[in-house]
Amino acid sequence: MSLPCGTRNYSYAEDMAILRTKTHWVFFIGFLALLYASPLYLGNYWLGVVNLIGITLVAATGLNILVGYCGQLSIGHAGFIALGAYTSAIVTNRMELPFLVGLIAAGLVAGVVGLIFGLPSIRVKGFYLAITTIAAQFIILWVINHWDSVTGGFVGIRAPYPSIAGFEFRTETSQFFLITTVAVITVFFAKNLARTRVGRAFIAVRDNDLAAEVMGINLLFYKLLAFFIGCFMAGIAGSLLAHWIGFINAEHFSLKESILYIGMIIIGGLGTTVGPIFGVVLIRLLQQTLTVQVVPFLEGTFDMMPSGFATGITPMLFGLVIILFLILEPRGLAHRWALFKAAYRLWPFSY
Amino acid sequence: MAELLQYIITGLSVGMVYALIALGFALIWKSSSVANLALGQIVLISSWVTYATLAQAQFPVWLAFPLVILFALLLGWSIERFALRPLIAQPILALITVTLGIGYFIEGLVNFIWPWSVDALPRLFPREVVHIGPAVISQEYLWVVGICLMVFLLLTLFFRYHKMGIAMRATADDQMAVQACGIPVTKVFSRSWMFACVVAAIGGVLISSIGGITHGLVETGLKAFSVVILGGLDSFIGAMVAGPIIGLLETLGGGYLTPIIGWGGVKDIIPFVIIIVVMILKPYGLFGEVRIERI
User: Fold this and answer.
1) Is the pLDDT of residue A218 over 70?
2) A143 has pLDDT over 70
3) Are A142 and B98 a contacting pair at CB < 8 A?
4) How many domains does chain A have?
5) pLDDT tens per residue across span B86-104
6) Which residue, among A227, A243, A261, has the nearest Cα to A58 in the 3D structure?
7) Which residue, among A323, A324, A331, would best test binding to B if mutated, counting the most B CBs under 10 Å from its CB?
8) Which residues lie below 8 Å from residue B162, measured CB to CB, with a gap of 6+?
9) SS (H, E, C) A152-206
10) Helices and strands, number each (H, E), in chain A
11) Which of B100, B276, B281, B291 to substitute to test the interface with A, most A CBs within 10 Å?
């Protein structure tokens, strides 16, 4: 990453800093303040959208570590989110343990199951792994749907409001603070993970796993670690989702949702920390505005709309967006963002 | 005994259809190493197009089927031309995800045009049941087996003797060499997509003539992946052998395991369990070529 004009590094600490200049700090703190102040200027509905974006971001960041950094394609992410959601709901609802226990348990269960389904990754990759994870998703959802006595089967299960130390997160606003804090911590963790020994090992495995192994990187360990971290975050996101919606069933975690997650990180930009943020915001905003504003408006204005318009238009558009991004901008919005930053730093000179 | 025989025959015929759909996958994989995850949706939309021609437009069968085939050809051509051609030589991740995007798009299209999402195809095969030994089989299963075998035979002959078939096999073997010989590789890719869509469409018509058209057809397409995984990704024989095996395991397991476990729908999950087991034990399948990688 190029530094702004005239900035030099004089120590290793300066070289390692994520936020290097004063302007960085101003923008960063300004952004956080703006984010945390959003209950002041956003209505309940839009706050809900922000919450959904936050939850999705946690899961997408996990997927980005697995796919974007470590190169292990997983198309069963919604299955692992479902695991987290159900674990948390069962722990808090049926066992009546505190929410924080449920949150951690959700992450651990999803992570451990992710390890099991990640095992084939040692011997296979690419398409084989994609199929394995699709199979994982179907098996997880099937178990959830049929293990009536624990999961509530097709009906679903209720998840109580989250509460920490006696405080109950009942309103959209209070949930906003919980979800946003978790999302910020996750992004911070992901950003730093990429800069550590582990993150560099992931990137080596992604770029060429054979060469990585020859260089002394333990493939088994790092691939499984990537699966664990990715699925752990999916579990955390699932737990937040369960307690945010309040009532979950397997419908929330279809294969389509998994594909959408892959789409999000591709649109955002694989292997970057800002990528998932862009992708998640774009896809979720598109989804909300389409289903809540655009489609009812169009249906209200034109009488002869086909009856399948409402259900059909969203997947069609998402499919199109994914295809177009892969063809026209395979490095995602994060690449555009980097270009923009570079241009901004040099402005008004073009060299 | 009668029950067992019945399971075996239905399992074999459903497995044949899986094998057919799986062939559609192997065709594309062999020639262009693209993993087509939109297979289920291609099966779905071609079944609906069959429905549109047969039930909605009331065309006779001799007109409806060529139309469906034509549609499948067009679908395959346009997928290859507009989505895969710009992505030649991209990493495998992009190639897999683009087919996922295509699948998403097709599913939306199906929802758009046929929003009621469940319907039955008009009967294609005679209604009378057949008695084989003690078992009573509805006739359509036998027709399905016959048609599948015929398509297998045609495809085998095509790959053995037709110029294009030989070019496809050559492309699968070594793309660079083929290009140097003056075989138009993009044309081979395009043809293999068209063929694959036709094969998947035939599979779709057969399976929906038995079970009706539902969204479950997407899952049927995904089950075909268990066939390619078990048989080996790049092997036609593998698909033909593994298809009936999967079909048999599915119906036998569904028939005998459901009372033991007590959970319904064991049938639908067996192919996916097989995928995981094969992945852990023998990832390149029964007949697949074991890839030796070099740095």
Assistant:
1) yes
2) yes
3) no
4) 1
5) 888 788 888 888 999 999 9
6) A261
7) A323
8) none
9) CCCCCEECCCCEECCEECCCHHHHHHHHHHHHHHHHHHHHHHCCCHHHHHHHHHH
10) 17, 4
11) B100
Domain that holds residue B145: 2-215
Q: Please check the confidence at residue B226 and state whether its pLDDT lies above 70.
A: yes
Domains: count for chain B: 1
Region B53-75 average pLDDT: 89
Q: Is the dihedral of CA B110, B112, B116, B122 positive or negative?
A: negative
Give the ipTM of the model, two decimals please.
0.88
Please write the tens of the pLDDT for every residue from A83-97: 999 999 998 888 878
| Residue A351 belongs to some domain of the structure | no
Own/partner pairs, B35-38, CB within 8 angstroms, 24+ separation: B35/A126, B35/A127, B35/A130, B35/B92, B35/B95, B35/B96, B35/B99, B36/B99, B36/B196, B37/A75, B37/A130, B37/A134, B37/B96, B37/B99, B37/B100, B37/B103, B38/B79, B38/B99, B38/B100, B38/B102, B38/B103, B38/B106
Q: Which two tokens stand for residue B128?
A: 């009378």
Q: Can you read off the two tokens belonging to residue B167?
A: 């070019």
Residue B158 Cα, gap to closest chain A Cα (Å): 27
Question: Would residue A143 count as lying in a domain?
Answer: yes
Q: Does A349 or B106 have the greater pLDDT score?
A: B106
- Cis ω before A348 (30° cut-off from 0): yes
Minimal-distance CA residue of chain B relative to A140: B269
**Structural domain of A240:** 38-346
Residues of A in contact with B105 (CB under 8 A): 315-316, 318-320, 323
Q: Does some domain include residue A1?
A: no
Is residue B20 assigned to a domain? yes
Vertex A159: Cα angle to A169 and A168 (nearest 5):
15
* Residues B72 and B191: beta-carbon distance below 8 Å: no
Give the nearest partner residue to A320 out of B92, B105, B295, using CB atoms. Answer: B105
Q: In this complex, do A323 and B102 lie within 8 Å of one another by their Cβ atoms?
A: yes
pLDDT exceeds cutoff 90 at B4: no
Q: Give the position of tokens 């698909």.
A: B239
Partner residue opposite A319 with nearest CB, options B108, B115, B222: B108
The answer as to whether A25 is a domain residue is no
The CATH number assigned to the domain holding A268 equals 1.10.3470
Distance from CA of A158 to the nearest CA of B (A): 22
What is chain B's mean pLDDT, rounded? 85
Encode A22-38: b = buried (16+ Cβ within 10 Å), e = exposed: eeeeeeeeeeeeeeeee
> What is the per-residue pLDDT across B170-197, written as a single tens digit (0 to 9) for each?
887 788 888 898 888 888 999 999 999 9
Task: Report pLDDT for A29.
Answer: 94
The predicted pLDDT at position A351 comes to 59
